[in-house]
Design goal:
Residues 456-528 form the ACT domain. Its EC number is 1.1.1.95. It is an enzyme of class 1 (oxidoreductase). The structure is a single chain. With 528 residues, the protein is an alpha/beta fold. It is built from 17 helices and 22 strands. The strands form 4 sheets. Strands 8-7-6-9-10-11-12 form a 7-stranded parallel beta sheet, sandwiched between helices. Strands 14-13-15-16-17-18 form a 6-stranded mixed beta sheet, with helices on one face. It has a 5-stranded parallel beta sheet with strand order 2-1-3-4-5. The structure holds 1,4-dihydronicotinamide adenine dinucleotide and 2-oxoglutaric acid. The site of 2-oxoglutaric acid has 10 residues, from loops.
Length: 528
């Protein structure tokens, strides 16, 4: 039977050749539809392929009863509602490798243009003005480029910057000294990178954790006269803060390929002469467009024919037999991973997941994937899923180990997640209690009994009289209602842990005040 594939953004014709040539596929190309036309067209399609322009919202997905796959010809999937797609059993695939080089090259073009004022000088000359004094630039040699996000593109930028004899310092939650040394760059914290960079360039995805990562406070740490580039996603850099910093002269210039809202023709940043910009052209080369269109076309055809895909971004449907046995544990596994990833410090090196009790004889690999996804999600966002969790971990050099254990500690089933980093080893265990739902029953060596949901506060402290009371009073001052509280300790007066569940999200200043209480060593706030 013919399958209809709708392409709603401009794509390379050579790239989509596999689709055009497929006898069982009808390809509908319409890159200039109104919203209403898109809703109508998608209602008849089994596959939708987009670049970054089409916003594949929940509304679009809900209008597409036959849709099986959404293909993103590119990397970032922030224009696709992944939750809505997953809920509707639609698999999302992307093409993460095809535009890496083009985007890295565009970043270098922007870097050089920024250093030498090329766009501004060109603009003057086109207006028949021969200005030379106004456009004195700076050399790249011996300057430091700070790279935030050392993934595919960040690494390629580093290679090229080294070719210009720049010093490279990089920060990425998955980068450690050893990996940095191998890549020939200096490893730093975000703060180190901000402080040392003459040029700062961001190459992270836009996720909750990276939204406004480069904000006023971050910019204040930078050298006066430093320059900033964003060829990743609008929103990673706080635009108002950047505007003020450039206008005041604190930041000497900025090069932007992306904006929080696109198209961005009226953006105030464009009025600043020190800001140079391109209209999201990072991936706009013949090669990249052909690569990403080909990659996504093959995956879409494979999927429509019932095959397996190379670059899945979200969760495909799980077989009903498997679902029955494992689904009760899906949420528990993800939350154990999510919980632990928030409390652990350092660079992830190894994840161990142990199963016991009634899970001994079950294929628990899907649960391990979900636990790993829960851990990695904190750094990578929704691009990591059950399908690609292991690959993502191995790409980051993280070892995954799954084991069955006969030690049940008295529970009928037990899932234990352990993380090893370069600094520490932490673990958490959870169980499903018959009729009572999920419980976290152990955090490191402390026995606790916590429902893994809602707003939780984890406090590591020294077991001293009054510590619990001071926490309770401070939360009351902040109008925070404590729903439950669990305390575990190693020995009288020794290390102890408190886990509180509260009725609303803990604000940053409240967390800071908690951390300032005597005998309290560390405070982590989670939202599960
Ligand atoms: N301007 C354009 O046309 C293009 C823009 N992009 C953007 O570039 C981004 C990066 O692409 P790739 O390098 O292919 O992705 P990638 O997944 O290979 O690398 C992203 C890196 O960011 C790191 N990261 C995540 N959170 C971080 C944080 N808080 N601080 C520091 N690092 C963090 C991740 O660990 C990962 O190593 C994409 O997400 C996309 O939004 C990609 C292609 C074209
Ligand atoms: O389709 C495009 O040109 C945008 C590419 C991009 O931003 C991405 O791949 O994340």
């Amino acid at each position: 039977m013919m399958k209809r594939v709708l392409i709603s953004d401009p794509l390379s014709e050579d790239g989509i050749r596999p689709l055009l040539d497929a006898e069982d596929v009808e390809t509908v190309l319409n890159p200039s539809m109104t919203h209403e036309e898109l809703l109508e067209a998608v209602s008849k399609a089994e596959a939708l392929i987009v670049r970054s322009q089409t916003q594949v919202t929940r509304e679009v997905i809900e209008h597409a009863p036959h849709l099986k796959v959404i293909g993103r010809a590119g990397v970032g999937v922030d224009n696709i509602d992944l939750n809505a797609a997953t809920e509707h059993g639609i698999i999302v695939v992307n093409a993460p490798d095809g535009n890496t080089i083009s985007t890295a090259e565009h970043t270098m073009a922007m870097l050089m243009s920024l250093a030498r004022n090329i766009p501004q000088a060109y603009h003057q000359l086109k207006q028949k003005r021969w200005e030379r004094k106004k456009f004195v630039g700076v050399e790249l040699k011996d300057k430091t480029i700070g790279i935030v996000g050392f993934g595919r593109i960040g690494r390629e930028v580093a290679h090229r910057a080294k070719g210009h004899r720049m010093n490279v310092i990089a920060f990425d939650p998955f980068l450690n000294e050893e990996k940095a040394q191998k890549a020939g760059v200096k490893h730093g914290t975000l703060e180190d990178v901000l402080k040392e960079a003459d040029f700062l360039t961001v190459h992270t995805p836009l996720i909750e954790k990276t939204k406004h990562l480069i904000n006023r406070e971050a910019i204040a740490l930078m050298k006066p006269g430093a320059r900033i580039l964003n060829c990743a996603r609008g929103g990673i850099i706080e635009e108002d803060a950047l505007f003020e910093a450039v206008q005041s002269g604190r930041i000497a210039g900025a090069a932007l390929d992306v904006f929080e809202e696109e198209p961005a023709t009226e953006h105030p940043l464009l009025d600043l002469p020190e800001v140079i910009a391109t209209p999201h052209l990072g991936a706009s080369t013949i090669e990249a467009q052909e690569n990403v269109a080909t990659d996504v076309s093959f995956d879409v055809i494979e999927l429509l024919r019932g095959g397996t895909v190379k670059n899945p971004v979200n969760l495909p449907s799980v077989s009903s037999e498997m679902m029955e046995k494992l689904s009760p544990y899906f949420q528990l596994s993800e939350r154990l991973g999510g919980f632990l990833s928030k409390v652990v410090e350092g660079t992830l090196e190894r994840i161990n997941v142990y199963y016991s009790g009634e899970l001994l004889d079950v294929d628990t690999m899907p649960l391990t994937r979900i636990a790993v996804k829960g851990i990695l999600k904190r750094h990578i966002g929704s691009r990591v899923n059950d399908v690609n969790a292991f690959k993502t971990a191995s790409d980051k050099g993280i070892v995954i180990n799954e084991q069955k254990s006969t030690s049940t500690k008295g529970f009928t089933n037990l899932v234990t997640v352990e993380i090893e980093t370069d600094l520490e080893k932490r673990s958490i265990a959870g169980t499903l209690l018959n009729g009572l739902g999920a419980r976290i029953v152990q955090l490191d060596h402390y026995s606790i009994d916590v429902v893994p949901e809602g707003h939780l506060i984890v406090i590591q402290h020294t077991d001293q009289p009054g510590a619990i009371g001071r926490v309770g009073s401070l939360l009351a001052e902040h109008q925070m209602n404590i729903a439950t509280m669990q305390v575990g300790r190693t020995n009288l007066g020794g290390d102890a842990v408190m886990v509180l569940s509260v009725d609303k999200e803990v604000e940053k200043h409240c967390q800071e005040e908690l951390a300032g209480i005597a005998d309290i060593k560390h405070v982590t706030c989670l939202n599960l």
